Amino acid sequence: MKNIRFILSFLAFVLVFAGVVGGFMITVDPLQFYHKAAYEPLYSREQRYQNPGLAKNYEYDTVILGSSMTENFIPSKVEEALGGKVLKLSIEGSTSIEQRMIADLAFGTGQVKTVLWGFDYFTVRDNNVRDAESFPFYLYDDNVFNDYKYIFNISNIKHAFGALLLPKDKYPQYRNLDRLNNWDSYATYGSKKVLAKWIEAWNYEQTSGESEPDYELAKQRFDENVLSLIEAHPEVEFKIYYPPYSVIRQQVWYRLNPQRFYNQLEIKKYMLEKLGSMENVTLFDFQSDESVTYNLDNFKDLSHHTGAINQWIVEQIAAGSHQLTAENVDELGSKLEHQAKTLVINENGPVFSLTLTVEGQEASFVQIPTTSKDQVRVAVKDFAEGTGTAFAYDNDTKQATLQRGGNTLILTADNPIATLNGEAVNLDAPAVIVQGRLAGPLMQIVKLLGGNIEVTESENTYFVNYDIQW
């Protein structure tokens, strides 16, 4: 009897305790999942947890969707450019299915009139949510019976107490919805950081490039998660844009994962095919705008740009600039390919695109992607074949011999001194082995062999042509 009484008492205590905790959590509702907070909220930086409550319970008519590339939009600034009442629902590292899930919650309120959507190709490479085992699916469905996962979550309970008890000047970055998850103010930008990330990416892509997902699957995911949403809402205006990554990002894909590079070009054509005739959809493409992508001071890594670029993007969209159409999609794709193909990444200076010609005719050889000490390098064998210069190479000594117009030039790997007609010559940059080939400083090689290079720069200096003349 005592045991039964103890069990009943314990169960009663558990029920009362659960009721108190549940009542407290539903009332405080730290993620605003049930209602908008009546107090000054302390927002969560976990977007996959915070966004459902914002989408369900806030007032807006415009939503921002996308990955971390859209996090630096400031909703009040977007309102100034596009009008309306804006809510940012960006999700860092999100796939298209995650973006669709939060979009469905927003559309379910019946408020949405406009969508500003930053589209990254990587979002359709994978159709899974991030960290599927811990993903809060219960915040995205209509099943009240799994809400206990929210109500009795210890992290959420701590969040609730923090929202009520912490000083109002504590964690200011999580109290201003306009600046929530905006990392612009504490990010470090510049070429030094970007080039360091470039080295990391170069090593990574060499091992991951072979695992590029099938392009047909990417199209299928676009159809399921993006196209179907747009088709279901002809009353909503969709402004979809391709964000500008640094040109170095494109170069890495072009060189080491070309399938991914070309897939991103093809998905634009496919999206245009599916969306181009819809009156409620406008596509914008910023990926080949060299005024942004070649200036590494705009970036903190290979992809993520400053908040000023986000503001510039929305202003361009408001002005109707940078639209992607059936008339320019091939041209813009070719432009991006040319930029990635001809890019010179100067370890000691700005990046630029370089084209090579011989006596005014397009050269059959290209520069090596990296440079040093402001010296553009070329593969010596390719250079010789492309200019009609005699060439011999000793694999044991890593020594190349070039002969032209009575001059004999000998280059040795990693040796800063060359030999010209038997005389030692200091090189501006030593010949080195790059990707299994001996590469040497182009301008000095031409000069030592009796030639000349005429340099032509475009007005913005991002595009340069070297014409080799003999």
From TrEMBL:
One Pfam match: Cu_amine_oxidN1
Leader sequence residues: none
Domain (Copper amine oxidase-like N-terminal): residue spans on this chain: 358-463
InterPro entries: Cu_amine_oxidase-like_N, Mao_N_sf
Name of the protein this chain belongs to: Copper amine oxidase-like N-terminal domain-containing protein
